[in-house]
Amino acid sequence: MTTATTADRITLTGLRVRGRHGVLPAERELGQEFVVDVTLWLDTAPAAAADDVTLTVHYGELAEALAAVVAGEPVDLLETLAERLAAVCLADKRVERAEVTVHKPAAPIPLAFDDVAVTIVRERR
């Protein structure tokens, strides 16, 4: 049985998707690459015992669902995008907790920098 204290995790890092998010008109027009990292907490024991992918989160399908959100309807804030991605993660009832980081390495900052990111953690209520 899955509980909020489940220690098992599935992690997907470095998902790169072109999107049109941001507050500046040029960001909406030109788009840019966003990078997404997610960690899901769930009980993987049933899937492991049965060696059955249908008993766990299929990370390939998860990646496609997350990519569709990033490539989809534009939002102003990374915080809003992260919330939408967390909702995708928590749509699977087996997931008890999700950590989502959205990176915007080409953010319009007029100084040298490596990355800007927003990280959120959401739990099933």
Structure notes:
This protein has helices at 25-30, 45-50, 59-71, 78-90, and strands at residues 9-19, 32-41, 97-103, 117-123. With 125 residues, it is of the alpha+beta class. The protein has a four-stranded antiparallel beta sheet. The model has no long low-confidence stretch (mean pLDDT 95).
Short description:
The chain has four helices and four strands; from the N terminus they run βαβαααββ. With 125 residues, it is α+β, with helices and mostly antiparallel strands. α3 runs antiparallel to α4.
> What string gives the helices and strands in order?
EHEHHHEE
Largest sheet: 4 strands, antiparallel
Look up the CATH topology: GTP Cyclohydrolase I, domain 2
Question: What's the number of extended β-strand segments?
Answer: 4
* Portion in strands: 25-35%
Q: Calculate the mean pLDDT score and round it.
A: 95
Distance between the termini: 16 Å
The assigned CATH architecture is: 2-Layer Sandwich
Low-confidence stretches: none
Cα-based radius of gyration, to the nearest Å: 16 Å
DSSP helical segment count: 4
Structural class estimated from helices and strands:
alpha+beta
How helical, in percent, are the residues?
A: 25-40%
Q: Count up the domains.
A: 1
Keywords:
four-stranded antiparallel β-sheet; GTP Cyclohydrolase I, domain 2; alpha+beta; 30% helix; elongated; 4 strands; 125 residues
Q: Can you lay out the helices and strands and say which pair or pack?
A:
Blueprint: E1 9-19, H1 25-30, E2 32-41, H2 45-50, H3 59-71, H4 78-90, E3 97-103, E4 117-123
Antiparallel strand pairs: 1-2, 2-3, 3-4
Helix pairs in contact: 3-4
